[in-house]
Amino acid sequence: MKPDTMRKIDAFFGPPICFALTMRRKLLEFIMPRKKGCLESVKRILFVKPAEMGSTILMYSMLKRARELWPNVEFHFLVFSENVAAVEMLNMVPRQNIHCLKTGNFKEFALDALSRLFELRAMKFDVAIDLEFFSRASAILTELSGARSTCGFYRFTMEGLYKGDFFSHPVQYNPHIHTAQTFYSMIEALKQPAGQIPLVKTTVPDVGELEPPKLITSDEEQAEVKKLISQTNPAAKNAKRLVIINANSSELVPLRRWPLENFIELGRRILAQFDCMVVLTGVASEREESEKVALALGPENVVNLVGKTTLRQLLVLYSLCELMITNDSGPSHFASLSDIAVVTLFGPETPALYGALGKNRIALSADLACSPCVSSYNHRATACNDNLCMKKLSVDKVFAACCNLLNK
Q: Would you give the DSSP letter of residue 234?
């Protein structure tokens, strides 16, 4: 299903189902009340985060905090099948603990979700945590997981974005702290006394203190990616430096794309200034666009790996390159697993919430008054019809940031 279709289904079916589950929960509380307040012993946690591969990397500190509080806790994730690899990057969740949902169409999703719920309920989780900010589908799955306690975002006095009132540990979403801090606060919520409104009355670490996971690669993996590079362009063997241009962005927010002609001009300037070769990355559906970039920059200067790498190979590639320039998308977060420098271009969203973690990260934007216009409050579906916030981000500004990083 496409993101727009999923949003419409969530908006139409979600509210009445959430209301029905709220009434159900109120009745169940008389018969079998759930554990609220501070949870002393937690052996098994289910994290419900179906979508967005990039933001999965921002959960690493949250998992570390949970492991500090409950050293023997067992982590499980419920995700869309295409996001399994992102959870595996965390190196804290065994593959058998990652439960997948199919998303081919609504009927397939509904039947598969029902099947997964039967399996999950049999596991008797101590806690299920809904990590989607205002998705009703994830809230429904969390409530029906059968967990003894549940945690998720609740609107309290805010209008709109209704997703029911059935979490034992409701948390108020704070749009003024980084997403990694927000996830961290979900674990802190499980240790707070009952009756607090909003629930998380404690501090969270500074963004600079929140670490991303670190990628460990083997010599064999590096040799495999180097071979792929040289096979794609034999001239790459003589290149002193490799610079990645990732001109794509996910279908979730297509307005995040910087104009392709700007990427081409930026690539020309980098090739003229530095002894390097440009590596193009992206998914197979963007192959046609990448060919335009390669032709404009000169095929002899480009290694076009768009659609040619697995996600694991892409991560290894980052460890072999010095710099990546990318739209605000998953790769900027994946790159934080390595030491590659990254320049991320923002427009509809803000680095204050979604900036990549780690060192040598530069986030750039045009700072228009309308930006950011995409948030959890509009289900990341902006009314914008012309992304001037990206078009007005000049090549001069981006090139200066690249020079700053490469000259180091």
A: G
CA distance linking residue 399 with residue 196, whole number of Å: 49
In tens, the pLDDT along 198-245 reads 889 999 999 989 988 888 889 999 999 999 999 999 998 888 899 999
Reference 400, options 373, 362, 369; nearest CA is 362
Phi, psi of 114 (to 5 degrees): -65, -45
User: What digits encode the pLDDT tens for the residues 48-57?
Assistant: 998 878 889 9
pLDDT, tens digit, 9 for 90 and up, residues 344-353: 999 999 999 9
The percentage of residues in the chain with a pLDDT greater than 70, rounded to a whole number, is 99
Q: Is the backbone of residue 380 left (phi > 0), alpha (psi -120 to 50) or beta?
A: left
Cα distance between residue 288 and residue 282, in whole Å = 11
Which pLDDT value is given to residue 194?
87
- Judge whether residue 39 has pLDDT over 90: yes
| CA dihedral sign of residues 30, 163, 122, 115 | positive
CB 404 within 8 Å of CB 362: yes
**Average pLDDT of span 153-182:** 91
| CA 153 distance to own-chain centroid | 17
DSSP structure string for 107-168: HHHHHHHHHHHHHHHHH--SEEEE-SSS-HHHHHHHHTT--SEEEEE--TT--S----S--S
Q: Which domains does the chain have, with CATH numbers?
A: 3-209 (3.40.50.2000), 219-406 (3.40.50.2000)
Question: Does an H or E element contain 101, and which?
Answer: strand 98-101
Is the preceding omega at residue 198 within 30 degrees of 0, hence cis? Answer: yes
Sole residue written with tokens 């490799």:
242
What is the Cα–Cα distance from 15 to 26, expressed in whole angstroms?
17
pLDDT at 303: 97
Nearest to 274, CA basis, from 325, 231, 315, 227: 325
User: Model confidence over 279-307: pLDDT tens digits?
Assistant: 999 988 889 999 999 999 999 999 999 99
C-beta neighbour count of 310 within 10 angstroms? 9
Q: How many CB atoms lie within 10 A of CB 69?
A: 14
HSE, CB side, 13 Å, CA atoms: give it for residue 293. 29
